[in-house]
Amino acid sequence: MRIEADRKLDFADVLIRPKRSGLKSRSEVELRRTFKTPHAKIEISGVPVIAANMDRVGTLKMAAALAGHEMFTALHKHYSIPELKQAKISGDFSFITFGIEDMNKIDAVMDELKDREANKICLDVANGYTETFVDFIRDVRKHHPKKIIMAGNVATADMTEALILAGADIVKVGIGPGSACMTRAMTGVGYPQLSSIIECADAAHGLGGLMCADGGCRMPGDVAKAFGAGADFVMLGGMLAGHTENVPEEDLKNLSKNDNMIEYYGMSSEEAMNKYSGGIAKHRASEGRVVKVEYKGDVKDTVRDILGGIRSACTYVGASRLKELSKRTTFVIKSAV
Ligand code: 5GP
Fold it and tell me: What is the rounded end-to-end Cα distance, in angstroms, of the chain?
């Protein structure tokens, strides 16, 4: 046994120190970014916030709505090929998600859809630390050399490097911070998310790769902190749940004045496993839970709040572009309460 004694931080442990700024208005702040991908060697451009690949978040309707704001969606992995084909998705802003057993489906989807609909792949597993997952990324890269691959989740620099070396362009970072996640409670495993972002961004950038901070953002200020810590992309689950674009019609019908709460559940929860895998396998425990979120109507108002918060953070530190936010960020650690 070994203890790492240096303090690791979560979003709630820090604030961004304000700095002198020549900016006159937050409207001057440019949130769009363009990145070069190390393996696919193609550019990815947009406002780098991604709706999570969860079935109550990353829906086709959400992808259409967010694309209008040049924001991204990782579509959940339970869409069939005909559904994806019929939706005529915009490949510019959509990642198509697959699990570790989906090699044949990846090949079929990439064959069936045109390149402008499907050029971004999200490979998602709860635990990105296995050799099998690293081999899987290597295989997908070999089959699809020109597609952008985002893969995860991991939480430390060593494994961020391993996934990039195996063929990932973007590494998804976060073990245990999610709002519907029970991993830390069920297993004791995890890593404080702000420190994870700082360490994994450094590792990814050192290899010319990119990283996506996934999970743990509860409010726009957390998204600003994630970008300030060095994230290239930030993925949101709970903050984008509970909107017209991702609440099932049946649930929308049941809303009333007295009850405007919507169920949102983790993809490893009993609910999700009952729905997609015929229940929880004997050797597993559920590592996700159901949380209730308020129904917030169309996502455009939430988008305005989130992007407004990031723009304002940029003006507080004098960053005229989101790209400069991390260079201009000094975190101050709050005193323990
Ligand atoms: P949030 O933005 O809600 O804090 O976090 C969203 C992220 O939580 C997702 O993108 C995913 O990485 C993670 N997540 C989703 N469902 C589950 C689950 O059932 N268990 C765990 N451990 N993590 C989950």
Answer: 30
Angle at Cα 30 formed by Cα 224 and Cα 25, nearest 5°? 85
Enumerate the domain spans of the chain.
Answer: 32-333
Question: Treating both helix axes as pointing N-terminal to C-terminal, what angle do 299-317 and 220-228 enclose, rounded to 10 degrees?
Answer: 50
Whether the CB-CB separation of 235 and 74 falls below 8 Å is answered with yes
Tell me which CATH code domain 32-333 carries. 3.20.20.70
Task: Judge whether 181 counts as a catalytic residue.
Answer: yes
Taking only the tens place, the pLDDT of each residue in 246-261 is 999 999 998 888 889 9
Ligand 1 centroid to Cα of residue 291, in Å, is: 12
Average pLDDT over residues 254-273: 90
Averaged pLDDT for residues 50-73: 98
pTM check: above 0.85 = yes
Instruction: Please give the helix or strand (H or E) that residue 235 lies within, else none.
Output: strand 233-236
Give the distance (Å) from ligand 1 centre to CA of residue 197.
16
